[in-house]
Amino acid sequence: MDSAGYLAHLRRDLGAFEACLAADLAAPVGHCGDWTLSDLAGHLGQGNLWAAAAVTQKRGDYQAPAAPRDPAALARWFGDTSGVLLAALDTDPSASAWTLAPPPTVGFWQRRRCLETLVHRWDAQHALGSIGRLDPALAGDGVAEVIDTMAPRQIRLGRTSAPPHAVRRTRSA
To answer: What is the rounded CA–CA span in Å between residue 153 and residue 163?
Structure first.
């Protein structure tokens, strides 16, 4: 997927996630441990600000402020974090950025935040009993990201061991 495609999906999923914040923020998010929708909004919004700092300040040590607990303030705050992220990512994908894995470019963050938001948009909708569709190409890209980016990072950090067998993609007829 190209930069414009990632940004279009990201805008759409950020908006869909924000729409969920008009519902019960105490709703449990079943696929995120003991988190509520409010907790998930804080996680995603703080991640938006962290990724924006990685692009604009080229640093990975940014500590985003805690999300507000008031429901109306949380929704406004989340919308603001989305705007900050989209402004930071709306640039040349080959521009340099701090990243947690190669390549050290804005394009890394366009992909990473798009996929993170896709998953958590689904989590939020699922928590509210209104599951939205996952774009098949984007979902496939998410699986690829686990294999090409996230699993190698977890192995490098010592959080898991390398798989005993190689993973390879096969094409179906």
So the answer is: 13
Q: Which helix (H) or strand (E) holds 162?
A: none
Is the preceding peptide bond at 93 cis, omega within 30 degrees of 0?
no
Q: How many residues are recorded in the chain? A: 173
- Could you tell me the domains of the chain? 3-156 (1.20.120.450)
Per DSSP, the residues of 21-66 read: TTS-TT-B-TTSTT-BHHHHHHHHHHHHHHHHHHHHT--S---PPP
pLDDT at 55: 98
Q: 3-class DSSP state for residue 71?
A: helix
Three-class DSSP category at 94? coil
Position 173, amino acid? A
Nearest-CA neighbor of 142 among 132, 150, 152? 150
Which residues pair with residue 28 across a beta bridge?
36
pLDDT tens digits, one per residue of 65-78: 999 999 999 999 99
**What is the spatial distance between Cα 100 and Cα 29, in angstroms, rounded to a whole number?**
26
Encode pLDDT of 93-152 as tens digits: 999 999 999 999 999 999 999 999 999 999 999 999 998 899 999 999 999 999 899 988
Looking up tokens 């010592």 gives 158
